[in-house]
Amino acid sequence: MAESHGGGGGCCPPMDLMRSEPMQLVQVIVPMESAHLTVSYLGDLGLVQFKDLNSEKSPFQRTYAAQIKRCGEMARKIRFFKEQMSKAGVTPKETLDRENDIDLDDVEVKLEELEAELVEINANNDKLQRSYNELVEYKLVLEKAGEFFASAHRSATAQQSEIETEQVGEDLLEAPLLQEEKSVDPTKQVKLGFLTGLVPREKSMVFERILFRATRGNIFIRQSVIEESVVDPNSGEKAEKNVFVVFYSGERAKSKILKICEAFGANRYPFSEDLGKQAQMMTEVSGRLSELKTTIGAGLDQRNILLETIGDKFEQWNLKIRKEKAIYHTLNMLSLDVTKKCLVGEGWSPVFAATEIQDALHRAAVDSNSQVGSIFQVLRTKEMPPTFFRTNKFTTAFQEIVDAYGVAKYQEANPSVFTIVTFPFLFAVMFGDWGHGICLLLATMYLILREKKLSSQKLGDIMEMAFGGRYVIFMMSLFSIYTGLIYNEFFSIPYPLFASSAYDCRDVSCSEATTIGLIKTRDTYPFGVDPVWHGTRSELPFLNSLKMKMSILIGVAQMNLGIIMSFFNAKFFKSAVNIWFQFVPQMIFLNCLFGYLSVLIIIKWCTGSQADLYHVMIYMFLSPMDDLGENQLFPNQKIVQLTFLFLALVSVPWMLLPKPFILKKQHEARHQGLSYAQLDETDESLQVETNGGGHGHEEFEFSEIFVHQLIHTIEFVLGAVSNTASYLRLWALSLAHSELSSVFYEKVLLMAWGFNNVFIWIVGILVFIFATVGVLLVMETLSAFLHALRLHWVEYQNKFYEGDGYKFAPFTFTLVGNEDE
Questions:
Q1: Averaged pLDDT, 458-465
Q2: How confident is the model at residue 218 (pLDDT cuts 50, 70, 90)?
Q3: What value does the mean pLDDT take over residues 339-365?
Q4: Are strands 241-248 and 193-200 parallel, antiparallel or unpaired?
Q5: What percentage of the chain exceeds 90 in pLDDT?
Q6: Scanning 28, 245, 460, 543, which has the fewest C-beta atoms within 10 Å of its C-beta?
C-alpha cells in the first residue's frame, strides 16, 4: 500500500504530499515460462495494481484454477496444523531461512505426510482416550454397585439369621432380592436380572420415572451419586453422573430398559453379583487403566514432538503458500494470448516506478531461463487513475484521517498537508491546559519510544487505535501545551511563568471585586493571559469574549485557506471557469462579510474601542444607510460597509449564472471539432476530464448542470454563515474544559485539603486523579478530537475537496504474512 513507500530513500523519489503520484496504465506481455517468477518479482516490488482482464470468467474457468485449488488444500493443512499446535500449546518458531529456498512440490509432499501421521496419531489417541474414559466409568460402576451388593448381602445374612432365630415364616418388605432363593420354595422362585451403568445426573429423576412407567412399576432401581465429574466416552466432555442398578423380571422388561438407557445416553457396563468376580474385575480394570495412562502419555509425547517439528518450519511454509496463492490469483487476472504462449497484463503504476518494473521483468526472464523477454509498454487512456500518496509513519495517521472522509481524486490537492498542523492546533484550542498537555505527551512518548516492540504485538481495539495515531496525539499534546501557556492554565491554576502580573490590587477587597480594583503597575504580561484575571469576577466575561472572537478569526482563516486550495486545484487542472466563477466570487462573498468581521475584531482589540460588533454586523444588513454613531471604528466605515455589502450581493449571481452557460458553450464547441487537438496529450485530457465533473459526455444536460450549480451556490452562501458559527465550538469546548478543570481542582482537591485528616486528603487526591484522567484526559480528549475532525471534514474540506477517488492498491507481499484466511 501507499504507506510502505515512504520518505526519499530506496527506489522512490522525495515524498510529496500535496499531489498524488503521477500514474500510468502499463501493459506487460510475459512468456508463459517466466510468468510465475515475473509476478513474484513484481509482488516483491509492490508498485503495480493489476486490472482483472478476465472479469467475465468465473473462478473455475480461469487458467490457474487448479493451482489455486492446490494452494487452498495446502492452506487447509496449514490451518489444521495451527489449530493442533494451539491446542497443544506449541508456538511456531520464527525462521530466518529464506522462503524462496524451498520448493512448493516438496512442501506439498511434506505436508501430506505430516497430516497423515498427525491424523493417525490423533485417531489412535482418541481411541485410547475413549477406552480410558470407559474404564474410568466401569471402575466407578464396580465401586458403587459393589458397595450396594455388599450392603445387600450383609443385610440378607443378618435377616436370614434373624429368621432362623425367631422362626418367622413371613417375608419382610425389606427381604433381600439376592437371597430370595434361600427363603422361598424353589418351585416358586422368580429369577431377577439386573443392569448397571451411569446416567447424566440432570436426567436421573426423569430416567427413573420413565423406567417405572414403562415397566408399570415392575422394577427396582437404586442410584448412587458420583462426587467428581467424569469425562463422557462418547462426547469427550466432563459431566456429572449417577451410577444406577436396575432389577427387572423378564426379557420384555429388559428390552424396554435397554431402549430407555439408549435414549437417555446412559452407558451400561457388565457386572457380576459374585463378590469374588467383582474383586477380580476391579483388579483387571485398575491394571488396564494404568497401562492405558502410560500409553496415552507416550502418544501425547510423540504428538508433541511431531508438532514441534512442524512448528520449526510452520512460518516458512505458511508464508510460501500464501505467496504462491497470491501469485496465482494475480496470474488469473492476466489474459491468455491467442497463441497461448504468453500472458498479457494491464495495471496502474507510478511513473517513477517504470525503471524498477522493467528491471524486475528482465531479472525474471533471466532467472527463469526464458528465451524471450517480457514486453513493457505504457498505454494511453481516459480512465481515472488511482490515488497514491507516499507517506511515512508520521504522516500516515493524518492521511488516514482525510481518507476516512474520502480518498482524494487523482492529483487533487491533498488536505493532509495542512491537516498535519491545523488538526492538532484546533484540538489544542479546545483542550488548552499545559498540565493536561504534558500528561498526554508522557503517555504518547511511551508509545513512541516502545513502538518497535508494540508494533509486533497484538493490542486491544482501543489500544490499537491509540498506537496507530500516536504521532497525531503527540502533535496534539505539543499544541495543547502551547495553547495552555497562552491561556495560562496548569490544571486550571495560573502561574506567572514569564513575568509578574502587570496589575496590583488597589485595596484588600480588590480580589473579591472586579478588575476595576486593579492598578497597572508593570509592563503588559509578555505571553498569554495575565494570571491576575483568574479568580476575579470578570474572568468569565473576559475569557468568553477573547475565545469567541479568537474562534471566529481561526474559522475565517481556515475557510479562506480552503477556498485558496480550490484556486490551486483549478489552476492545476487548467480550469479558468472555476477560477473566475467559483474561486473569485467565493473569496469576495466570504471576506466582504466575515473577513470584514475579523478585521473589526482586530481593530477593536488594537484600539480598545467599546463598539458593539453585534450591532454593527446586524444593522449592516437591516439598516445599511444609518449612521454608526458610537459603534464606528474607523473613518468612512459606512461607505466601506456599503461597498462590501454590494460586492457580497453581486457575488451570488456571479457564482450561479455564468458557469452553466460557459460549460454549455464549451461542450458545443468541443463537438464541432474545435477541441479535438487536445486529445493527443493524455495527461491534459485526463486532467480536464477529471475536473470537468463529467461535462464532456455525449449528452449535455443543461438543466442538470444548472440545478447542480444552484445547489452549490445556495450551499456555499448558507454554509458561509453556518460554518462560521460552527467554529464557535472552539470557544464552547475550551470554556467547558477550563471550567471542569477548575471544578475538580476547587471542589475536590482544595476542599479535601481543607480537612485536617490524612484519610480525607488521600481520598481527595485519588478522586482528583481519577476525575482528571477519566473525564479531562479521556472523555474531553475524545470530544475535542471529534469536534476538530468535524471542522476539518465539513467546514474546511467542503470548500475544495471532492474526495471521490480510489486508493492505489498494488499487488505486494508486504502484508501477506499477516493476513488471515
A1: 87
A2: confident
A3: 93
A4: antiparallel
A5: 61
A6: 460
pLDDT, position 520: 81
Domains of the chain: which residue ranges?
A: 124-155+190-294
Strands 342-350 and 23-31: antiparallel
Q: Where are the alpha helices (DSSP H) in 264-389?
A: 275-331, 354-367
Question: Cα–Cα distance between 529 and 65 in angstroms, integer?
Answer: 71
pLDDT in tens, 249-306: 888 888 999 999 999 988 899 988 777 888 889 899 999 999 999 999 999 999 999 9
**Which position has the grid cell 510460501?**
320
Report whether pLDDT(721) > 90. Answer: yes
How far from each other are the two terminal CA atoms of the chain, in whole angstroms?
Answer: 19
For residue 188, give the C-alpha cell. Answer: 416358586
3-state DSSP of 796-814: HHHHCCCCCCCECCCCCCC
Where do the H-state alpha helices sit in 89-103?
Answer: none
**In the beta sheet, which residues pair with residue 727?**
none
Q: How many other CB atoms sit within 10 Å of the CB of residue 235?
A: 10
Which grid coordinates belong to 408?
482524494
Q: What is the pLDDT of residue 523?
A: 86
Count of positions (residues) in the chain: 821
**Answer CATH for 124-155+190-294 from 3.40.50.12160, 3.30.70.2750, 3.30.70.260, 3.40.605.10:** 3.30.70.2750
195, 268 contact by CB (below 8 A): yes
